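[Help] Beginner question about ligand-bound structures

Sorry if this is basic. My supervisor gave me a protein sequence and a SMILES string for magnesium ion and asked me to "get the holo structure". I don't really know what that means in practice or what format the answer should be in. Inputs are pasted below exactly as I got them.
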Amino acid sequence: MADGEKIRILIVDDIADTRDNLAKLIGFEPDMEVAGTADGGQAAVNMAKKERPHVILMDINMPDMDGITATEIISNTVPESPIIMMSVQGEQDYLRRSMLAGAREFLVKPFSADELINAIRHVHELEKVKRARYAAAAPAAAAANPLAASPAARDNGKIITFFSPKGGVGRTTIATNLAVALHQSTQKPVVLVDGSLPFGDIAVILNMSPKAKTIADLVGSFDNTDSDVLESVLVSHSTGIKVLLAPPTPESAELITGANVKHVLELLRERYAYIVVDTWPSFQEQVITMLDVADVILTLMTLEITSLKNVRVFMEIAEKLGYGDEKLQLVANRNDSSGGIKASDVEASLGRKIPHTIVSDGRTLVLAVNRGVPFVISHRESQVAKDIFTLAQRLTAGAPEAAAAGAKAPARASGMRLFAR
Ligand SMILES: Nc1ncnc2c1ncn2[C@@H]1O[C@H](COP(=O)(O)OP(=O)(O)O)[C@@H](O)[C@H]1O
Ligand SMILES: [Mg+2]
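Answer (accepted):
No worries, everyone starts somewhere. Holo just means with the ligand present. The predicted complex, written as structure tokens, is below.
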């Protein structure tokens, strides 16, 4: 779609008042417009095929064909139109069935105008990224995107990027502790990169001076930055690792391009055995670069349906980017039996193994944070620290482990088709 084109939205609801209200809210947004309305599932399917809207708002309970059935059909026939489910039913079962049918978001009625608009922007943004990357990556993803291939043969540093399409799952915590664990167990040089450019909080977690140098000190001179210049903005931490801090403000983060990020990471490869990169949940150019150049992407997830949904979308993108099973590895963080869904169910629905798990241990984490010391040092004997050391060990081991870690999960015997796409 051309830049500046409005986000075209199809509204599906059997109640005329609801359709009118939604249309009114959308009308307030200068970059959105209503592509059409439908009062039932069958009408929605027809309209979606004809209009190919950018986003579909779909009610669940409708008299002729219900919204879940319509979603299933549309996700197969018009896959480029992402669907946001709307329902008064906030129950897990509805949410679950919608997601399994291929919906991208779920809004519980009544929702605010902000929630609606944010959800539309969010799914549209993701779809745009997907489309752009599909185009760039087609037809043979790996061949058209040489960066995606794991540079396994190289004997210089290994880039390990932490990613999650959702915030608050523990990326920064785990990335920081893994960097320290890698250094402790190999005694090799390790650098931790706060690639969460607009919202970096590694400086806080590691108790570093607010006056410390950051990547923002390179703005304006990235082209002249060599290993030595780069070294001068790295900060030494008492744990023995080096840290490349994120800019102090989101505004300065905007001055750093994907090409700058690539240049920096490639330079770090020359001197460091392990480069651990934290990110933020976004598909902006800088993040895509951190994913592209990585040898391993550790995709953190928690065992909740919302996390599952986001990871599924990310995996679709990752596949088009040519990231294979060895490159993209799932990590279940805060893994415990209470609440949420079972790891085995997630594995079956994603058709993919979760090779790494980290237990939930809020108490240890809080104690460690209060002391200002990574828990792999202050609470080395805790299970959560042991899980990090296990992860470190697997990442430093040779090819066999990596291959085992990336192995496909066996398909579930029932052959249940969990996702529409
Ligand atoms: N394994 C875990 N057990 C308990 N709490 C955790 C665990 N991992 C992360 N947390 C907590 O989750 C919160 C979010 O972690 P953070 O690393 O900031 O996530 P992100 O970087 O993904 O936004 C923090 O309060 C952190 O202490
Ligand atoms: Mg973070």
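A couple of things worth pointing out: DSSP finds 18 helices and 13 strands in the chain. Residues 7-137 form a domain with the Rossmann fold fold (CATH 3.40.50.2300). Feel free to follow up in the thread.
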